[in-house]
Structures are given as structure tokens and as C-alpha cells.
Amino acid sequence: MYSVNVPVPGQARQLATELYPSLRAFETIRENHSMVLKRLGDQAHISQLQHRVNRALEGTAPVEARIVGIEYFSDPPLGTAPVVYLAVESPGLESIHRELLDAFDPVDGLEGPEYVPHITLARGGSLEDATQLASRDLEPIEWTVDGLEFWNGTEKVPVSRVPLSM
């Protein structure tokens, strides 16, 4: 599965490390943090897929993003529940998501109007643990997204960078 991902700032990774003791109550803890902006599917012609992404984002300016707290999905469309995540506010990223929907079909239940910008921390476990974690106050983390990553989900690595131009 290929996707376009938002690089996660170092402060978010540091926060996830600080939260680790509280995340141990969950079945799985995300070790590598990323933020999916748009799923692209599996394609045999990776270079063509990358070219389509670059064309779709041509002329797109950098955007601001902000982690505002911890939230959870109590009933996610895929996988075990709950999913605990860092909530990201960014009208700019939501706009880029919509631009990518013009070039690539949405994944039902995950994209389009259902898209929620977030960085997954952990999943599986009790709603009580998720609620308790979500009640924590966090200092917001703000950053400028000046590029995106073309991501190989099978290998869990970025394949290339997609710059956002000024």
C-alpha cells in the first residue's frame, strides 16, 4: 500500500516517548510515527504513481499544523479498538487531502469527509484507558509542513519527498 504521509516533527516523537508508560496498557504501541494524508493503493508502476502525486500537488504551498491533544477512535473502521492518537488541527492539510481526492479515489470510511488528521499512538485495550489518556492536557506542538512523503506501507519507509513550494 502506498500513501502520501506528513512527516512527523521530532517534538511529537518525543511526546510519544514520554507517553510510553501510559501506552503500555494497549495491545499494540506504534513505534514509528507517521501521519497518513492520503492512501493511494497498490500499484505496479510506482514511478507513475509518484508522478501523479507530484502533479496533483504542483504549486501547493507549505501549511501550518498543530497537535492539540490526545483523542481516540472508539470504533475505528479498521483494526482493533480503541485507537489512541495525537489530534492534529490543520485546515491546510485537510485542503491538500481534498486536492489528492481529485486525483485518487477515496478509501471509504477513512477518507473524504471521514478523514481525521492524526498520529496514531496505540490501539486495542480498554475504553477506560483511552478516556484517561485523552483527559491529559498537552502543550500544543506547532510546525510548518513544507514537504510530504511518498510512503511505501509494506516496507514502512518513505520512498521520496514531495516538496511543497512557496
Automatic annotation (TrEMBL):
Domain of life: Archaea
Protein name from the UniProt record: Phosphoesterase
One Pfam family this sequence matches: 2_5_RNA_ligase2
Organism: Halostagnicola larsenii XH-48
